[in-house]
Amino acid sequence: MNPREDTFRARPMAAGQVLVMEDESSVAQGLKMVLQEEGYDVDLASTGRSALDKMKQGGFDLLVADLRLPDMDGMEVIREVKGKRPEIKVIIITGYGSVSSAVDAMKLGVSDYLAKPFWDDDFKAAVEKALRGRKDVHLKEHPDIVDTGEGPSLMESIRETPQAEPKRQPQVLLMEDESNLAQGLRMVLTEEGYGVDLAPTGHSAMDSLRKRSFDLLVADLRLPDIDGMDVIREVRDKRPETEVIVITGYGSVASAVESMKLGAFDYLSKPFTEDEFRTAVEGALREKKEAVWEKRIEPPVTEEERLIQKREVIRVLDRTARDFGFWRELLAIGSKALDGYQLSNEAKAAIVSGDLKWINEHVGELTQKQLMFIYKRLEREAW
After folding, report:
1. Is the pTM of this model over 0.90?
2. Which residues of the chain form CATH 3.40.50.2300?
3. Nearest CA among 32, 60, 33 for reference residue 46
4. Which tens digits make up the pLDDT trace of 117-152?
């Protein structure tokens, strides 16, 4: 059997293939009309289950998803879609918008979050932006932590690992105008071993950022001089390597969505607990560290590096043939299961996505046992 027979089927090219998951018939029909006038091919699903069934039957570029459905939570559908097909864009439409659901949605990779009622032009703009420049999926890869027990190699000497880096205290800039809160958060961060600078205004924060680099900006939005969102835009433009966590006593769906679109790692509404704050900071700094390592995992250049990578790909596929636990882990968490193997990002992506063409070109012929994981991986795209 051809392993691709059960995957999402391609359909004739239109401006975009859109599935609208909405249980209110009048709303669904209205959105369908708007989208068809813009040249999109549109299908409707009134329940979460029917939406998932339609996803299996035909390839879609965009899911427009209501959250409150008669059979299941719309967020569950979104998690399923983004987990199995991360290249599919998602726009949420909901009459029950909340800051927490907006932040959770944006963390899942949702393109936009529209609270009902919304204007046709806002909806069309969100759809156009989500589908603009859509390309084939490119999986985000996580870094290696190399520990094969086989002694140092040329690739290990080129690629820096966390063990090879000197211990450095993460640096945090805390932009908060309430003195008592700022001092309290500073104490929490200092106890965790972070270096902390305080900035009571937006301009003082930007001055600090011009003078030196920080790993993390903790940003209040309401400041005495300028809008905290302006500072975040400046940081994301001039210092994209700096992670951002928003803290605000005036949380709103609009500001939460805008913050996450700008690349904020998290959005905390005051009051929040110390544990919530610590967890957010730890996650943001881990994200930054992984992003730095990811840049270093380059494709092999020399013949020795290519041979090492070929050996590592074969090791992974051999292991899938004898270790069912590893097989399931690889399907469940993707490239995270490949920590410890000396693999470039493109090699990890090829294994995780079942890119048989890449594997044949860079590794060569494989045994039937080794190919079994690749074929099953391709079949799994049918959910």
Report:
1. no
2. 17-131, 171-295
3. 32
4. 999 999 999 999 998 854 333 333 333 323 334 333
